[in-house]
Specification:
The chain is of the alpha/beta class and about 325 residues long. It has 16 helices and 9 strands. The protein has 2 domains: about 240 residues, TIM Barrel; about 60 residues, Non-ribosomal Peptide Synthetase Peptidyl Carrier Protein, Chain A, CATH 1.10.1200.
Length: about 325
């Protein structure tokens, strides 16, 4: 059970599910660099009901990625239950429901963070998924819909009562999107609520090993989830582990960065084809080479490269 595995781990660190980012290649890299728990890109329940191949591929994983969860989203009970059952057939360690995505195209369909406007429906849909699968079910959500409405303490209790086994909370409202500063005080309130007995995972603005450990100590969360700060920066997980053990947080040298980028490219070439691999990597270069002196000219060239050979020549040039 996910709750048992979380409690056995010493402050686990999650790689947050991110559409277009946390594909298999990147998940495996983050795992090797110290990420404890991995989750798929989010999978549309509506798309699964139509057997959309891309959504089906998102649920696949390798044994080395465990513990691994499939994240689903949707607003229709039948489709959401069907998606959970479909995901369970891939034998992940848990099913995660996305009740936090703030993106307009998701919210406009009543999914993601939109559900925070209808808490009874949120609870009912979650309960239906819990009852439909034998796997542990977890939830990722936000503080609330807007600043005047942050019901997360009550919401967490109600979701726990219908059987979820862990909850990840992003410290922003839907209205904030990804702007402003994440408010962890309510995450702390959920964790310190005497009625709560499931693990609480904190998420939002964790952009360094130091901050991860500071927030864990300050708010007492059971785990940390890292999202945007991990994009092109898998060594953040290694740095957290190093800092916890009293070792210095080392930055990778240029050679390690290049080697990792080329590995990422090659793995995605095998899984998605060269063109897609090269184009998708363009969003990662800023992270992989952040802080590297005078890298900008190479990054400009990489943004127009169309083959792996070109990328490698630019990086080694």
């Amino acid at each position: 059970m996910i709750i048992d595995f979380l409690r056995k781990m010493d402050f686990p660190v999650y790689l947050a599910p991110m559409e277009g980012v946390t594909d298999g290649a990147f998940r495996r890299i983050c795992k090797e660099y110290g990420a404890d728990v991995l989750i798929s890109e989010f999978v549309s329940s509506d798309a699964l009901s139509r057997d959309v191949e891309k959504s089906i591929r998102k649920m696949d994983f390798t044994e080395g990625e465990r513990p691994y969860g499939v994240q689903i989203f949707g607003s229709n009970e039948a489709a959401l239950v069907s998606a959970a059952q479909h995901a369970a057939a891939f034998h992940p360690d848990f099913i995660d429901i996305n009740w936090g995505c703030p993106v307009k195209k998701i919210v406009s369909k009543g999914a993601g963070a939109a559900i925070l406007q209808d808490i009874p429906k949120m609870v009912a849909l979650t309960s239906a998924v819990v009852k439909a699968v034998d796997l542990p079910v977890t939830v990722k959500t936000r503080l609330g819909w807007e600043s005047a409405d942050k019901p997360i303490v009550e919401v967490a209790e109600r979701l726990q009562d219908v059987g979820i086994q862990a909850i990840a909370i992003h410290g922003r409202t839907r209205a904030q999107q990804y702007g402003g500063e994440a408010d962890w005080t309510l995450i702390g309130e959920v964790k310190n609520n005497p009625r709560m007995h499931i693990p609480v995972i904190g998420n939002g603005d964790i952009n360094s090993a130091e901050k991860a450990l500071e927030y864990q100590a300050r708010y007492g969360v059971d785990a940390i989830m890292i999202g945007r700060a991990a994009i092109g920066n898998p060594w953040i997980f290694r740095q957290i582990k190093s800092l916890r053990s009293g070792e210095p947080c080392q930055e990778p040298d240029y050679g390690e960065r290049v080697s990792l980028v080329m590995r990422h490219l090659r793995e995605n070439e095998r899984e998605k084809g060269e063109r897609v691999a090269v184009i998708e990597m363009r969003t990662m270069y800023a992270g992989y080479f952040r802080g590297v002196f005078n890298f900008k000219p190479k990054r400009i060239k990489l943004m127009s490269a169309t083959t792996l050979k070109e990328c490698e020549e630019i990086l080694h040039g």
